Every structure is written in structure tokens, then in C-alpha cells.
Amino acid sequence: MQIYWTKINKIIKETTEVITYLLDCPGDFTWDEGSHTHFALEGFNAGEKPNRSLIRHMSISTLPHENAIGITTRIREQCSEFKTILSNLEVGNKVAIFKTYSNVPLKREDKNIYLLSSGVGLATFRPLVLDYFERADNVNQIHSLNIDSSKEFLFTDVFKSAPDKKFTAQFVDNRKDYYEKVKDLVADKDGLFYVVGSDEFLVQNIEVLREQSIKPEQIMLDKHEQELPNFLS
Predict the structure, then answer these.
(1) pLDDT given for residue 78 in this prediction
(2) How would you label 25-36 residue by residue, b for 16+ Cβ within 10 Å and e otherwise?
(3) In the chain, what is the greatest distance between 2 CA atoms, to the nearest angstrom?
(4) Domains of the chain (ranges plus CATH)?
(5) How far apart are the C-alpha atoms of 197 and 168, rounded to whole Å?
(6) Tens digit of each residue's pLDDT, the chain (233 residues)
(7) Which of 57, 56, 77, 73 minimizes the C-alpha distance to 22?
(8) Can you spell out the DSSP letters for 159-173?
(9) Phi and psi of 80, rounded to 5°?
(10) Residue 24, CA atoms < 13 Å, CB-side half-sphere
(11) Is 198 exposed, middle or buried (0-12, 13-18, 19+ CB in 10 A)?
(12) What is the pTM of this model?
């Protein structure tokens, strides 16, 4: 397993609670849209065993051509040891990334794609949308629906409706509106539905999708293959 040590290049305060850390790209490090990585703080591998409290599974919110590895996360006032340390890091501090993989690449199967996310889960979808804007081959259209009760919606520079690009972005701040809109979207029985958020959010969305006859193979989750049966069986 290769561990890439890299430096924080820039820190962007996206909203009151959401921060993006832009990391320098190590020379031979590459990734695909929809990738996640293990993001670790200094000292995580100092002992005989890795200190798991200093490691988190994070989505990469950028594409390689942006020349930075973007890690976008929500840091609340009351937070974990990991988030507390992270919130005190500065430009130039070192962090580690390893075990990078994409469970949710953009499927180009001549279908409509629906991106369903909660809060900062939108960070996983940002690279998919940018990839689609650059090359729309074999994707009919993309519709993004995000729920964020904070009402401070993320990445509104990317997630704005563009009819000429066959892209629609919707934001809602409550569950009632969110699930009503999901039910409208599942009128498309042939679409591909990507879902990113907490496990509870995944379970609730899958329930709605399955009730509307959407098949498991039409539902994309940011989970390892061996975890999928826990949600889709």
C-alpha cells in the first residue's frame, strides 16, 4: 500500500460549517470522478498499528485537471478528535492519502442520471458533473437533487441549472419537499439513481426507489461491492 504524504495548498470556507482543503498533487497520484480516499493526519502510523481515530474515509471533490486534491467536509462546533485537529491545520501542514478508489464513476449508458445527495454528500458529485460538462457522450441528461437543512447550499457555481447542457440542479431544505421531488424523478423507470449521504439517508432513498420499481442495478452507492447487499438486497 502506497501512502502519499502531501501538503495543504489552500483552505476554502465554503459555508459556515463546510471547509474544502485543497492538497498538492503528488507526481504519480491520479484518480477518477466519484473517487474516495483514506485521508489521514500526521501521527496516524506512528505506532505499531494505525491510529484509526486519525483516519477518515473522504470523497475527492475535484478532478485531476484542477491540479489539486479537494477534500470537502463539515466541521461543527462539537466535533470528533479528528475534525478538531483538522480544523486547526494550516496551509503547508502535511496530511496523508492512500487507498483511493471510485465506486461511483459516471456511467455512460445513454440514460438519464439522477444525483440524490444530502448536505456535504454533494462533494462526491461535483467531479461527476464537471466530467459531464467536459464530455457529455452517452449521457442523456443529469438532474441533481440535494437536501441541506442549513440552507447554505454547496458548490452553487457548479450546481446551477444549465438547460443548454441538459443539466438541472435542485436544492431543498426539508425532507417533505425532498421526497416529493424524488417521487417525481422516479417516474423515469429507466434512469440511473446515484445516492450519497449517511447510511440512514441511503436506506430511506432506496426504500422510495424500490417502491417505485427501480431495480438494484439502477441504484449507485458510494460503497464497496461487498457492502452493497446490506443496502440493496
Answers:
(1) 86
(2) beeebebbbbbb
(3) 55
(4) 4-102 (2.40.30.10), 111-232 (3.40.50.80)
(5) 20
(6) 899 999 999 999 999 999 999 999 998 999 999 999 999 999 999 989 999 999 999 999 999 999 999 999 999 988 889 999 999 999 999 999 999 999 999 999 999 999 999 999 999 999 999 999 999 999 999 999 999 999 999 999 999 999 999 999 999 999 999 999 999 999 999 999 999 999 999 999 999 999 999 999 999 999 988 899 889 98
(7) 73
(8) SS-BGGGTEEEEEES
(9) -70, 170
(10) 13
(11) exposed
(12) 0.94
**HSE of 91 in the Cβ direction (CA atoms, 13 Å)?**
5
Q: Do 6 and 95 contact (CB within 8 A), yes or no?
A: yes
Contact 227, 220 (CB under 8 A): no
In DSSP terms, which residues pair with 113 in a beta bridge?
A: 142, 192
Cα separation, 7 vs 167, whole angstroms: 34
**Angle 149-153-158 (CA atoms, 0-180°, nearest 5)?**
150
Three cell numbers, residue 12: 476554502
Question: What letter does residue 97 receive in the DSSP assignment?
Answer: E
Q: How many residues does the chain have?
A: 233
Q: Which spans in 106-219 are helix H?
A: 122-134, 175-185, 199-211
Burial, 86: exposed, middle or buried (Cβ in 10 Å; 0-12, 13-18, 19+)? buried
